[in-house]
Amino acid sequence: MKDERSGQNRNCRVRFAPSPTGPLHIGGVRTALYNYLFARQQQGTFILRIEDTDQVRYVPGAEQYIINSLQWFGLVPDEGPGFGGAYGPYRQSERKEIYDQYAMKLVHEGKAYYAFDTPDELEKYRESDPTFKYDASNRMKLRNSLNFTEAQTKQLLESSTEYVIRLKIDPKNSVTFQDRIRGEVTFSTDELDDKVILKGDGMPTYHLANIIDDHLMEISHVIRGEEWLSSTAHHVIMYDYFGWNPPEFAHLPLILKPSGKGKLSKRDGAKFGFPVFPLSWESGDPEDRFTGFKEDGYLPEAVLNFLVLLGWSPHSEKEMFTLDELIQVFDIENIVKSGARFDIDKALWFNQHYIIQSSNEDLAKKLIITCEKLGIQTNESYLLGVAALMKERVHKIDEMITSAMYFFLPPTSYDEGMIKKKYKSELGQHLEEIGKVVGSSESSSLEHNVKSYISEQSLKMGDIMPLLRIAISGTMQGPDLFETMSLVGLEESRRRISSSVEAYNKLIQ
Length: 509
Fold this sequence. Notes:
Radius of gyration: 32 Å
Helix content: 40-55%
Oligomer: single chain
């Protein structure tokens, strides 16, 4: 129902309806995000429905993975498996009797029919005619209840001959519907085949199940990927056959490969070296194991901010949005028709900005998990200091550890090129003395004491400071040297400086 004065939909109900056939692709997350934003903006209901009618492709653990992913992003359903709601069950496998009832209704009204053709028979037709489709042009030549007598059909059913139920599409008509993104869309029924709506195992196909569920769950808007656009004509026909009003449709553009050519697939992540799933996925097949955005060091709010702009524009220069801000400004009319290129560099840019904005306390809690996985003994108090020094220097959370192991262990290698450029054996004694200065200083006076020694000994800052930095971290890269020394510990820093002298002498020999 629509309020013409405000343009807002009362009783707005949208659903995210993934199939548990594997890990949730990042494109599915974007679909969930757009549904969630629309529902929240309209003060409506966001529903999770598990479309698990394809029992052959069902993967154990996939449903929980979907739920875990939504929760990580903060896209928590109002209704769904484990979330309650008055329109359940929310798993299609638990609604089989409902679909049977409606499929039989269509058969009895002559809007669908039994088809007894075997898979082998249909394959032979396709081999002889690559353009073959089961439709009005040939259905009367095939093995179905439209071509059989009532007695023949009854005999086949009573003898438990396997069958499917197909939707009967009348030729020489057109089907038109409005899409909130693409405008008016029209299909000729001559282009449509007689879709299977109930399979041989008694389970419905997507086409039947989603129509019935959307109606019974009072879904007001169907926001889904454009791959379903070509099937919507069948769905509109079924709404008409049942005498139901269809929901409003909005078909989202594809997320494209980094090249901009072709749809982003799950294999592209392995190929290009970036995640395409929210969370890591493990299975018995090594080819079916993927690292997720979470485990790769991304923050959920950064991934959402990146995703929302893949196909939607705020029509402003602003790029950084919190979830609450997106709820305020999101407009389904601003979703574009064309596909959006998946730019991992942009995702990293967002992640860096969100890391910088994060509190050191939040980052430390995440870093302690990384340290535990790497076997590093530390505590959150120490990691607060690491976060403070490193968060403006990384694109991913884990890089605060992996690119700065010197906070936890003395360096095992040194920047050889810089040492050969700056170090001379006569500087060794000065480094030993500076080490003693470091060990006897307080953090507040550390920088002053070290620089005073360098000045008093008429040494060059440009020679000594790089050697000190490399002694502490092994590299010229890193945060402020004196803050790093203070965090590592001044006595530990003294030991590292002292140890470096022997290593430097060996390198220049």
